[in-house]
Design brief:
This protein is an alpha/beta fold. The protein has 14 helices and 21 strands. The chain is globular and about 70 Å long.
Length: about 550
């Protein structure tokens, strides 16, 4: 049986327009799972008890600190009497959330490792070992040992580490300009505090599947099996090293093609928006792949107005904006975004002067959240997309009227088939690229509040009470082989295609309560596929078999 080690995955800071580290203000409220199968009915104590399936050193130095408890964490529901005890409770709480949503009946061993580092990232994590060609596995495909243990129903790692994790000691000891918030929920804005619970959930998800093969291995990781490359018209796992490298440089080029993820997208993700010029002049306004992130929702009828473009060099805004839609770079909204310095607060000024909506840029590695002091719609988009949009607008007359409206049948961060994009593009760190959702992949808001996707490229939140959610990531984990918590009870429930009542699966229902087979294996599974030509699947040829195993029309 093949065993390999893997480099760590890294959670890094985003960067702003002038390439300075962003100082974000982080918040989190009590986890809202919004109709997920199990955690909605559990108390904090029950969630923490669920973490017992994970094994780790509870006597690690970060958990034994006798320093006074963190006041912010206490305010946010973690009332333990020492800082170390707060950390331990928050760590268990994060693990318990995962265990409450997935069926995990084989122990997952976590090992902490320490080393000197800088303030450029909060934590790193990785799977420790990978396995292939075992029971319930796709042939010649690498699986993290934590998942392989569930598929084989045995400890493949022989009590060795399944997941390595490092919490940056500089953030633990206060050497950086932010600190961890160990709160279980949040009732107020958290100034310069990193949501520890969300961070741990993010890093654990890397160790449980959101990873790629080691550089010296020819066989793909299970996550790679799920990816479709649009410009190559091929599955990512079929490409050679050079082709994979080139594919990753292109923004909005690689989608997660798992069947459960496709099925659940419309239930989980929010509707996207578009900007439409009200003119007969030929225009080339690019699609807005964005997130409406504000406490003020975009009206169903949309917003109609002219565009006012704010100059980045001056960030000056004056006069009565009279219902205009304001286009401004994020560097002109430093106060709202929590950057270093608060000299620019252009979003607030624009709102006060009558703007009807804001379209703004964001760094390539993250999505900006809602702002509690803003009541008009704020649309954020990656910097590269923002520049393309501005260039197209500048080609039209300045008095052109536009409609900012919801985009029917288009989900945020997805392609035309509703498949979520993974994070790709130029100038992205190796640890960020491919292994996260594109920042615009946005779950539906709950109670008019932004819901943070735990596999966004960065774990920071904005100036609002953002809700943590693993909801948009659970289907992807199921596509890779994990089972939802209810799987095996004999009743078909959310995120399940079948349920035989047998955790080992049957010929007609796999161990994770999905129908057997996957698109691209070259075998037509009549229950879920119209066709399957394997490596010859493509989306461009009429009557050919598509990457989703449907016949192209």
């Amino acid at each position: 049986m093949f065993i390999s080690t893997k480099q760590q995955s890294t959670t890094k800071h985003p960067r702003c327009l002038k390439n300075r580290l962003i100082n974000f203000i982080l918040t989190a409220i009590l986890v809202s799972f919004s109709s997920l199968t199990n955690a909605t009915t559990l108390t904090v104590e029950q969630i923490i008890d669920a973490s017992s399936i994970f094994k780790f050193d509870e006597n690690h130095s970060m958990f034994t600190s006798t320093a006074a408890p963190d006041e912010l964490s206490t305010t946010n529901g973690n009332t333990e009497s020492t800082l170390g005890a707060q950390r331990l409770k928050a760590f268990k709480y994060a693990l318990g959330i995962i265990a409450s949503e997935l069926r995990i009946n084989q122990t997952i061993d976590i090992v902490f490792y320490d080393s000197d580092t800088n303030c450029d990232y909060y934590a790193t994590a990785s799977y420790a070992y990978s396995y292939q060609n075992g029971k319930n596995q796709i042939a010649n495909t690498l699986y993290p040992s934590s998942l392989a243990n569930q598929l084989l129903q045995t400890d493949t790692s022989n009590n060795s580490a399944d997941i390595w994790i490092r919490i940056n000691p500089k953030y633990l000891n206060g050497s950086c300009n932010k600190k961890f918030n160990y709160g279980l929920y949040s009732n107020e804005k958290n100034v310069n505090a990193i949501d520890f619970v969300q961070l741990i959930m993010h890093e654990m998800t890397h160790g449980m599947g959101f990873e790629k093969r080691p550089s010296n291995d020819s066989n793909p990781f299970i996550y790679e099996r799920m990816l479709w490359v649009k410009d190559k018209q091929d599955y990512y796992s079929n490409l050679n090293n050079d082709q994979r490298t080139e594919a990753q440089k292109v923004v909005s080029n690689i989608v997660f093609n798992g069947r459960i993820t496709r099925q659940q997208a419309s239930n989980i993700l929010d509707t996207s928006v578009k900007l439409v010029p009200q003119t007969t002049q030929e225009s080339n306004i690019p699609k807005i792949d964005s997130n409406v992130v504000t406490t003020g929702a975009l009206p169903e009828s949309g917003i109609v107005g002219q565009i006012n473009i704010v100059n980045f060099d001056t960030c000056a805004i004056s006069g009565n904006l009279g219902g205009k839609i304001v286009l401004l770079p994020d560097g002109c909204a430093r106060k709202e975004f929590g950057y270093d310095g608060t000299q620019y607060d252009t979003i607030i000024k624009a709102q006060n002067q009558g703007a009807s909506a804001i379209i703004t840029s964001a760094a390539e590695t993250f999505r900006v959240s809602a702002f509690t002091d803003i009541t008009i719609p704020v649309v954020t988009m990656p910097l590269s997309d923002y520049k393309n949009l501005q260039s197209a607008i500048e080609l039209l007359p300045s008095d052109t009227t536009y409609s900012l409206e919801k985009q029917a049948n288009k989900l945020m961060g997805t392609d035309e088939s509703g498949r979520p994009f993974v994070h790709t593009g130029l100038n992205l760190g190796s640890a960020s690229i491919l292994l996260h959702w594109k920042p615009s992949v946005s779950p539906k808001p709950v109670n008019n509040r932004t819901v943070r996707n735990i596999m966004e490229p960065n774990t920071v939140n904005g100036l609002e009470y953002a809700q943590r959610s693993i909801r948009s990531t659970i289907p992807a984990l199921i596509d890779m082989g994990w089972a939802v918590h209810s799987c095996g009870n004999g009743v078909v429930e959310e995120f399940e295609e079948c349920d035989s009542g047998n955790i080992n699966g049957t010929a007609s229902c796999a161990q994770n309560c999905t129908l057997p087979g996957y698109c691209g294996d070259g075998v037509v599974n009549s229950a879920t596929e119209e066709c399957d030509d394997g490596k010859n699947n493509n989306d461009n040829t009429v009557n050919a078999c598509s990457s989703m195993c449907t016949v192209n029309k």
